[in-house]
Amino acid sequence: MIVQMRRTVVTEGNAHKVLERFKPKEGKKSLIEQREGFLGREVLVKKTRRGEEEVVVLIRWESEEAWKAWEKSPEHIAGHKKKIAEHGGKPPKPDYVISSEGGLYTVH
Question: Partner of 29 at 20 to 30 A CA spacing, among 36, 39, 41, 81?
Answer without folding.
Answer: 81
